[in-house]
Amino acid sequence: MNAAHALPLQVTAVRPRTPWQLFWTRFRRDWVALAGLGIIVVILAMAAAAPLVPSLNPELQDLSLRRSPPTPAHPFGRDHLGRDILSRVAHGARYTFGAAVTATLIALLTGVALGLVAGYWGGIVDDVGMRVVEVLLAFPYLLLAILIVAILGPGLGSATVAVGITKIPHYARVTRAAVLSLRHSDYVDAARVIGATDAGIITRHILPNTMAPILVLATVGLGADVLSIAGLGFLGLGAQPPTAEWGLMVSEGRSYLFEASHIIVFPGVFLMLLVLGFNLMGDGLRDALDPRLRRR
Predict the structure, then answer these.
(1) CA atoms within 13 A on the CB side of 10
(2) Fold of the domain built from segment(s) 76-293
């Protein structure tokens, strides 16, 4: 064919994918992470639907049916006071999950702010901030949480605050390390040269680039906070009766482990599943957000 009559080539422009699209493409290919997300969604749906079902009354007692095993009418059986365990597990998800999310937010917001300030300004600010973090790290987290609850008084709110305070050092250290690696980067120096304020540099240039490790830490930390909230409830320092909180339910059922094991098994299984879901999803987030893996 004569080159003069050759058909012109049509070039189709390919739109570059956004960071969110790149993240979602990697995340959805990880079936383990999707399984973790699915577990969390199912438990959240159960918690959201529990108040909408009138028959799921977590405090309704029937002593004539106490410690009765699972039946088609009551799939999880009844506890030592004749309360339906299915309804208590469904409502308990709201307390355990809600307290864990609140504790994580307390630690996240406080720790990130402390890490940003200490890492960016350095000097005396860094020294004082990190010494406070080291003092908190010097205490075993459970003993520190028990001390805080002893000061505030037993209760789910006190346990939530205690768990949040004990986890602040983790977020502060991770954020500070990320800020130290970014504060003298070229784009930060360029922003400083054109007159950007410190607040603008932190919020527009540094904080967005530190969010990947913080999000992974928060996701995995949610699972740890669920266990911490349940652990304080098990010790009698968290939620108080008759609250349907999973740790408290396990504590109430431990005396009937051999004669009515279903009382402790079902809240324990859901507690395990929720923690497993956060751990699996956290691993998936880490792989999807890792820049070294994006071209694979």
Answers:
(1) 2
(2) MetI-like fold (1.10.3720)
